[in-house]
From TrEMBL:
Its EC number is 3.5.4.25. This is GTP cyclohydrolase-2. Pathway: Cofactor biosynthesis; riboflavin biosynthesis; 5-amino-6-(D-ribitylamino)uracil from GTP: step 1/4. The lineage of its organism: Bacteria, Bacillati, Actinomycetota, Actinomycetes, Kitasatosporales. Residues 23-189 form the GTP cyclohydrolase II domain.
Amino acid sequence: MTENTGVDIGVLGSKSAGRTDTERVVNAPLPTVYGKFQAIGYLDHARGEEQVALVYGEIGTENVLTRLHSECLTGDAFGSRHCECGDQLASALRAVVAEGSGVVVYLRGHEGRGIGLLAKLRAMALQAEGLDTVEANLALGLPVDARDYRVAAEILRDLGVRSVRLMSNNPRKREALVRHGIQVAERVPLLIEPCESNITYLRTKRERMDHILPHLDAVAHGS
């Protein structure tokens, strides 16, 4: 299995082709517990945020196995069981290695579906009092989902990707990528076994945010 990314790094610091907002800054090898990736760093000038794409193998241009992963400090770094984010990130990285190629775009600025870390913690506190994740955001006067996938599409275009097999349970991610000019050839489910701490959160995502989570049918209500 090749470890070569197949990504033409070009001249680092040049702007993404045909774009003005997203600048590719660096390409560095990143050995991980899952495999050896290339970490390609970008600066989103429109929002002043730093972004990274983890690329594995020769990704090509069509039907690239891809995950757009929203930053989640509590889940990704702290192992929170309030959500399934950390497990999804690990599963996505394992999946692209098993596939032999693929991309995981880690989207900073997406914490708490775009409301930020402190606001997310405030929303979690309200959820502990009985509100669901949608009600908590609204009670704080915040949008339910404020994420923007423009930069993800620009990063994929910079990598030469025209169409993806998108690892996601969220149909809105698919719609957003298509709207920004990246075709989605297939949606690949990324289902994580629920636990007592996140089952209510997952049911809310399915019932109120249209996430496709058929595996929840096997979990009895009230568990």
